[in-house]
Design a protein that fits this description.
It is a single chain. By secondary structure, the chain is mainly beta. 6% of the residues lie in helices and 57% in strands. The chain has one helix and ten strands. A hairpin with a 4-residue loop joins strand 8 and strand 9. The longest helix is centred in the first third of the chain and has 6 residues. The protein is elongated. The protein starts with a strand and ends with a strand.
Length: 106
């Protein structure tokens, strides 16, 4: 969980935690998957898929669980990063799954 340029009063009241995926999952390419998270924030989140440090795609989430359709790719070392930003990105909160997961072709 990371806070950027936020006041302590805002930071202390906001939470965002990805519950699933949390690492070790094996998902099928092209499938719809749920990103489950807990938050104290009401708003839209951007869910980003990375393979290592390489950005793959993103989707917008209005509530948990967020349904995310995987692209037709496969491999290891995938992560999901959820981000919520306000005030022209002067303040944002984000979280990513604790360990990588895999995507396999069907």
């Amino acid at each position: 969980l990371k806070f950027i340029e936020s006041s302590d009063s805002i930071k202390d009241k906001q939470t965002l935690i990805i519950i699933s995926p949390n690492g070790g999952e094996i998902w099928k390419s092209g499938s719809k998957q749920q990103i489950i998270y807990k938050t104290s924030i009401i708003g839209r989140f951007q869910a980003n898929l990375f393979q290592g440090e390489n950005y793959i795609m993103s989707s917008m989430c209005d509530e948990s669980p967020c349904v995310f359709t995987l692209p037709n790719i496969s491999g290891n070392n995938f992560k999901i990063k959820l981000t919520y930003s306000v005030f022209n990105e002067e303040y944002y909160i984000d979280d990513e799954n604790d360990a990588p997961f895999s995507i396999i072709k069907e």
